Amino acid sequence: MSVHSKRIQLKYENMEELNGVTIYWLISIGLLVGFIIDLIMIKRGVGMIANLLCGAASSVVIGVIAISFTVYAPLIFAAIGAIALLFLVNVFSIHVVEAADAQSLDS
What ranges in 1-107 are assigned the alpha helix state H? Predict the structure, then answer.
């Protein structure tokens, strides 16, 4: 066995598997990201429950996709993806509320 094939074998031995522990960590990371985003947004955005649910769901989906594509460190990708999705959800929620407030003031 060559050195290159040993590296490939070691690389795939250290990859995450999709099991109960991994799903637990994906959900935990998503909940933590949702909570932190809610603290940052204070009273703007979608609210705590929506941030927690969106964070957990997006973290699990992105983590499962990363594991299925055998990406290295899928938990980190799940956290980054949850942050990005929650940012977009909260920013567009703020713009919708501001537009509705401006429209009600014009009437």
Answer: 3-13, 20-41, 48-68, 74-106
